Amino acid sequence: MKKKFNIIQSTCIPINIDNCNTDLIIPARYLASTTRDPKFFGDAFMHDLRFDDNDVPVSDFVMNQPEFVESPSEGVHEIIVGGHNWGSGSSREHAAWAIAGYGVRVVIAPSFADIHRNNLLNCFVLPVVVGEEFHQHLLKSISENPQTEVKVDVPQQKVTNLSTGETCFFELSAYKKYCLMNAYDDIDFLLSHKDKIEEFENRRQLLTK
C-alpha cells in the first residue's frame, strides 16, 4: 500500500527467527495466485508457522499469542522485530507483499538478505538494520512488556525503543527515502519529473534539427 512515511510509532511483533527465509514468510504454493489482493497475501504471511495441517492456529507461535494478535481495539502492530538474515532464500517478491498485506510498515533486524530488502522497499515496507545490542535490548523490552512501542523517525533515520530511550541510526538511500516520504514508486517518481523530462526532450530535439 502506498502510504507516506514520516514518523511511525507502534507496538511490535517479535519474530526472532534467524535466517527466516521467504518460504517461511510465504509458502511457495501461494506464488501461483494471480491476485494482488493485499488481504490474500497478508493472510498467507507466516502461514505454515501460524497454522497446523488442519488450519488450526498454533497456540505457541508468537503471532497467535493474545498480546500480539491484531484486534480492532488495539489496532495493527506495524513493526516486526526479526532475526539475523531476515528474508533469505528465494527472491520471491510475494514475501514482501505478504508482509505489507499483513499491515506491517517496518521490519527491524540486525541484517537482511539483499534482494528481500530491496523488495520490501519497493513494496513500501521499511527495512531497518540495527546493531546487535540495540536488537537484543529491544527484544528484552518486548518480552517484559508486549506493549513496548518503537518510534521510527524516517526523516532523521533513527529508531527509538520508547521503553528504554535507546536509539539507533539506520542507513537509507536518499532516493528510497524520498520515495517513501512521498509515497512514490519508481513510476511515480518519474511522473513527478514529467515536466523536466519533457523540457529536456524538447531541448534535445531542437539541438538535433
List keywords for this structure.
209 residues, alpha/beta, 7-stranded mixed β-sheet, 9 helices
Q: What do these coordinates show?
A:
- With 209 residues, the protein is of the alpha/beta class.
- Strand 3, helix 5 and strand 4 form a beta-alpha-beta unit.
- A seven-stranded mixed beta sheet has the order 4-3-2-1-5-6-7.
- The longest helix has 15 residues.
- It has nine helices and seven strands; from the N terminus they run βαααβαβαβαβββααα.
- Helix 2 packs across helix 4.
- Class by helix and strand content? alpha/beta
Overall spatial form: globular
Binned strand content = 15-25%
Strands ordered across the widest β-sheet:
4-3-2-1-5-6-7
Q: SSE order in H/E notation? A: EHHHEHEHEHEEEHHH
Q: List low-confidence stretches.
A: none
Q: What is the averaged pLDDT score?
A: 92
Distance between the termini: 45 Å
Briefly say what this structure is.
The protein is of the alpha/beta class and 209 residues long.
Strand and helix map with partners:
Elements: E1 7-15, H1 22-25, H2 38-44, H3 47-50, E2 79-82, H4 94-101, E3 106-109, H5 114-122, E4 126-129, H6 132-144, E5 149-153, E6 158-161, E7 167-169, H7 174-182, H8 186-192, H9 194-208
Parallel strand pairs: 1-2, 2-3, 3-4
Antiparallel strand pairs: 1-5, 5-6, 6-7
Helix pairs in contact: 2-4
